[in-house]
Amino acid sequence: MMEADSKIRHFFMNTLALPQPKSLLLLSDLALLLVAVVWGTSYGVAKGALVFYPVLGFLAVRFILTLVLLLPALWRTSALQRRDAWRTGLPLGGLMLGIFLCETLGVAHTQASNAALLISLCVVFTPLVEWWLLGRRPAQAMWVFAGLSLLGAALLSGGLVGTLGLGDALMLAAAVLRAITVCQTAKLTRHSRAPALALTAVQAAVIGFGSLLLALCLPGGLPPLPQASAFWQASLYLVLGCTIFAFFAQNWALQHSSPSRVALLTSSEPAFGALFAVFWLGESLSLSGWLGGGLIVLAALWTTLRRA
Predict the structure, then answer these.
(1) Which of 43, 221, 225, 263 has a CA positioned 20 to 30 A from the CA of residue 128?
(2) Domain annotation covers residue 155
(3) Where do transmembrane segments lie in this chain (predicted)?
């Protein structure tokens, strides 16, 4: 009887136990794939919103709204957690401000499909940045992947036959900054006690008020807020899906995975972004553009199979 009771207790303890590491890894992988879908559509949605408002004003609206929604999560934390959130979130928020400035300005000056494909170069850049920042030497094959990706970027942007466009160059800069941010997030959050939502709130504050300050420093400042419902619908989608959910999921996943795995699992983002831009926005790519985009996605998938 005692043995039976012991087996029953063991069964319920296992059933009600917290997820084991493998379960957490699977959950983080699924969350990151959903992030890839949401982020893939964000370029087309942002491009539509920029028709109504300038880049800096749009970023200020997007991220100050995000901060307002996340303030309760920040204030519910303990003093130690809040201190860690600010200590970690300030430098990461500065990096994210640079990313979103490059990305949003890039989207304004190139096709949404180009933006979605070029930003995926961070998949190949991340292992190289890991080597630079964290001392983890990449496999020799990574240089092949990097070469294929850069060839694809050149074909996509017309760089082989002309000059690299401003928008495409900004997206390349954003890809490098993304790779740096992934590694720095993993490094700075490893021993941080800040909850993911609180950290996201601090990052949103840095991006939102940083964009507003930059806008106010420019001659003429900002125009009045737009009244178009399309602008506010796009902003709400980006706030709830592409910022709150995506930032939270990435910050949480980085506590249960490696930077390369996080970057690699979001490598499907360019495919979703290009398809959304072509079928929803009616954009078109030339034959060399499709070939270049295919090389970028192929390098990302190849890297995924090799490193994941």
Answers:
(1) 43
(2) yes
(3) 50-74, 86-109, 115-134, 141-163, 196-218, 230-250, 287-305
